[in-house]
Specification:
With 497 residues, the chain is α/β, with parallel strands linked by helices. The protein folds into four domains: 6-61, MutS, DNA mismatch repair protein, domain I, CATH 3.40.1170; 81-236, P-loop containing nucleotide triphosphate hydrolases (Rossmann fold); 248-257 and 320-453, 3-Layer(aba) Sandwich (Rossmann fold), CATH 3.40.50; 260-317, no CATH class. Helix content is 37%, strand content 18%. The protein has helices spanning 45-54, 81-92, 107-117, 129-142, 166-171, 173-176, 198-201, 225-228, 238-241, 260-280, 287-297, 301-318, 321-334, 346-356, 367-379, 412-420, 444-453, 480-485; strands spanning 6-10, 13-17, 30-32, 37-41, 60-61, 96-100, 122-126, 148-152, 155-156, 161-165, 182-186, 207-212, 232-235, 248-256, 339-342, 360-361, 384-387, 402-405, 432-440. A hairpin with a 4-residue loop joins strand 3 and strand 4.
Amino acid sequence: MVRTPTLTFHRGTLILHPPPRSKVWMDFATWDDRVEKFRIPAIQYRPLVESLQGDSVNFVDDARAFYPIELTSTLQMEPYIHQTEALNAWKLAGRKGVVVLPTGAGKTYLAQMAIQSTPRTTLIVVPTLDLMHQWYAHLVAAFPDTEVGLLGGGSRDRTPILVATYDSAAIHAETLGNLYAFVIFDECHHLPTDFNRVIAEYSIAPYRLGLSATPERTDGKHSELNFLIGGEVYRKRPSDLAGKALADHEIIQIKVKLSQRDRHRYDELLKIRNDFLKQAKISLGSIQGWQYFVQMSARSPQGRKAMLAHREAKEIAMGNNGKLRVLADILTKHYPQRVLIFTADNATVYRISNEFLIPAITHQTPVKERHQILTKFREGEYKTVVASHVLNEGVDVPAASIAVILSGTGSVREYTQRLGRVLRKGKDKEKLAILYEVIAEDTSEEGTSVRRRGDEPRRHKGHEGKERLEVVNGGKRGSLRVAEQMEINYSTDKPEI
């Protein structure tokens, strides 16, 4: 008697046994001598099943433990045009892929729309505990009749809709892999790391959605999102949504001259550094060059001296007194509007906090104190908050009108996140947000500014940069109406559930 091939899930992989007579599955499988059976990566579940079904292979699918769920939303809003377009583009791509939207453009509500249109057990993965609790609160409000759980921060739920941190989801990837048909990766640029990628690789989820304002990574690993989630299906920049879903905004760059004393010292330090780089034939124009500089700084006194000179020069550019005078002028000009101040280092944060009597938030700030500061900022008791990198991502920062970047990295992601903190319209439909970028003239900060802005156009009074919608890697192109009518092609019905 011929046995029917059975597909089972085992610790992040699939086992197909006995082997089907058809050959369509062979490209996915590898022989495992330990169990004397063919093993297949879990991430290949959907193409494997589609291939077997396409070749009319009779098989038993015991791998999936996900199932359809009843969803009734009590949190309904009229979506913005870009949210509808993004959802339709994702559907047209087969319910797989990455959507790129700026901070404040409503990625969470877009995800809610995707969950409603794909009513299956769903896992949402987020980078921080703060974001985990924000997502949880939103989903509980949106789907009060559906059990929503948490994985992370001491919680280990197993519910139809589960919100997990990347760390916890990676740790439990082998057991989560077959429980969820739909996985949403928030801030998906965190996924393609050696530790986190198993969340996608060990999952059989046929439906995947990645969300990010800036998916690009300096190490180039963002290209792996094509395999782990799917290609980029939709993208909008802040300038595309200004005056619509986001507040209209201006980006004003202010250059500050170094004092004669600081300028002399800065040039002296750069000469020390550059002489060493020239001697060691090191170029800082790439990550590899910087890594080599770090290595060489630990191998010789000259290298150590050059590294110390580099750091001191950077400190002069980031924290010079001229910047603080400009900051004082900005705060006076915009009082009593709410202002967020960003720096690249904690020392400058604490200096500003002490000199201007402004509440400060760094990675050293306890969670309760941070919550209290942001609550008072939201309620208007505090008009200004200064922070380092801690407010860049994963924290619900109340909408402010003015942002001031006194120093930062060359990261486009950091810049976009900081800009996004003032782009939420809130109740003020006529809001004009302003981002001040204060940099030291004729220093390395000018190059850093160019790198972090990327191709984002700066707005000045009287200028508006409008961009047209572009759908990238969207699979089949079709009308929005076609996308709205698209059904889920893969059957998830299972008799025993």
